Amino acid sequence: MRNAIRVVKLIISNVNPEITEDQARKDVLARIDFFVKTRIELASNWLLLICKWGAFLKYLLKGKEVVRYVSSKIQNGDVILVYGWFLFFIAVLLRRLFSFLSSTSVLSSLKHSSAQGKKFRVVVVDSRPRLEGKTLLKELKNSGLDCTYILLNAVSYLLREVTKVLLGAHTFFANGHMLARVGSAMISLLAKVPLTFFSVSLPESLTLPAQSSRVQIDSLVYNELINEDCVVPISDPARREQLSEALKSTKKLHTLHLLYDVTPPELIDV
Amino acid sequence: MPQNANLSDVITLISDIKHGKVFSSYEIALRTENLLEKVISEEKWANAKELMQQIKGKIQQVTQSLPLETTATNIMRHILKVIREECDQVSKKKGEGQSLHQLVTADQSEERDYSESHGDLKNCLLDHLTEYKVELETSTENIAAQALEHIHTKEIILTVGKSNTVEKFLKHAAGQRSFQVIVVEAGPLYHGHKMAASLALSGIQTTVIPDSGVFAMMSRVNKVIIGTHSVMADGGLRAASGVHGVALAAKHYSVPVMVLAHMYKLTPSYVCSHEKDTFKMCASPANIIPYSTGPLLNKINVYNPIFDYVPPELVTLFISHQGGNAPSYVYRLLSELYHPDDYELY
């Protein structure tokens, strides 16, 4: 969001002072549309991107490096716990459209390793507001990996078997704290209980830069709320009604669905 | 056959627990108490030794069928201790109570032979049981009465899932103090929703958060108040799945964790925390990923553990009807509740 605002400011500051106001307005709007199309709707306008945004290629190459590095860390017999790939959907679309780009998606690092013939298991952790892990699970299963699916409460139970933890990060702040999907901090904390060897956090290097010059230590100071429509309802219909009825009947009850949380650097290894 | 007749009531209790007819620890405790009353008043036993053998047989039966269901066995163990104490008093061997000198110089090899028969033993035991029943029934109120000592105005309290004890505790405090409660949903059954609805309807400002939001919110929380399934001998907890994560987050932000536990939840067994088989009890995975997902289910493993082990260093205080105790004091409470000979009966 911040970056989008920054780009808009940049566009406005670059406007030619000699043109009329109306024309300037149209020009700025056109550029904003362009930005939306190219930076945000990547999947459909990929060709345009290659022509106009050379920087995107840089991101692609970075992605490949990341994938290669992560693949090198995955060994035979590993049990890997994954959580939080929200930008993953875009990566999947890219992969589907242009298969030679498959190495850019972080999912592919796992596929890359399995292609190299390494035998490992994956544990997919999911949590409720959006239950995004299910898509990841299907993808992994289709690639033939051995998968386990659990909810966040069972992580403590399974963590004894796990050798590495891969978390999808959104941003890294200047003080080393990581902004990631809500729940990632909990997993890092559990992984630090001495039984797991390795905790690897991977930055998503596709749409947004992975580094931020901002500093943040607290998850609540600057966060986003998940839209209520995106909250996946509980599968059991009897229980679903409980909360919604109570919410309607009293003003004293609220729900809070955060989108991100901040993990301190001491809980992250790589 | 007296042996079979003795075990049929236990078998009924076990089957009710397995089928979910008796669900909360409180109900199990009451049922066990009734069972013991019947045993003492109606069954044939000549002396204390025979009675204790019968009860030990029942404990073994329950332990074999439901290894993780400790409420019933704890209450039976407590009764064994009561029986031994009664015998000691009646036999006048240590009539004035044990002096320190006697404790220190007592002969290790001295075996108490409980085979003397006492006419009064039955009545004494039944009196004790009635007292114990009253204690059981009022224990939740007694715990709730301590709420005002622990909750300050304008505090933010975090709780996980649904616990009747915690609910009464918070409602009692809400009568005189205004505070906020954050309830963690606790998947996969989401009991937290019911808890939150109940608290909000009685006028407490409540917020529901999913399990993933605990770390984010913990920096704002003043206290964590939770219930538990049982308390292990080292002061650790066997609690609902997900509580370990909450306790770790609380430790990270130095938030005190208070556990409300009735005395019958204290169990004299330890947990080897790196043996996850100790907590092998899992529930149906249909709650995690519904059967309607289709053919994908053939190829994946899904786990739904019921319990979590929380090590004692993450717990700040245990609150029982007798008051608050530190986890390091649990061993002392155990020695008051159960006799050391009854710790392992399997």
TrEMBL record, chain A:
Q: Give Gene Ontology CC terms.
A: cytosol
| A Pfam family reported for this protein in Swiss-Prot or TrEMBL | IF-2B
* SUPFAM superfamilies, A to Z: NagB/RpiA/CoA transferase-like
MF annotations from Gene Ontology: translation initiation factor activity
State the family named in the UniProt similarity comment for this chain. Answer: Belongs to the eIF-2B alpha/beta/delta subunits family.
Species of provenance: Zophobas morio
State where the protein is found: Cytoplasm, Cytosol
Record keyword Signal present: no
Name the UniProt record assigns to this protein = Translation initiation factor eIF2B subunit delta
Q: Does the keyword Membrane apply?
A: yes
This protein's source sits in the domain of life called: Eukaryota
From TrEMBL, chain B:
Q: Answer yes or no on keyword Signal.
A: no
Q: What is its main location?
A: cytoplasm
Q: What keywords sit in the KW lines?
A: Cytoplasm, Initiation factor, Protein biosynthesis
Cite a single GO MF annotation: translation initiation factor activity
Family annotation (Pfam families): IF-2B (PF01008)
Protein localization? Cytoplasm, Cytosol
Can you name a GO cellular component term?
Answer: eukaryotic translation initiation factor 2B complex
**Family statement:** Belongs to the eIF-2B alpha/beta/delta subunits family.
Can you name this protein? Translation initiation factor eIF2B subunit beta
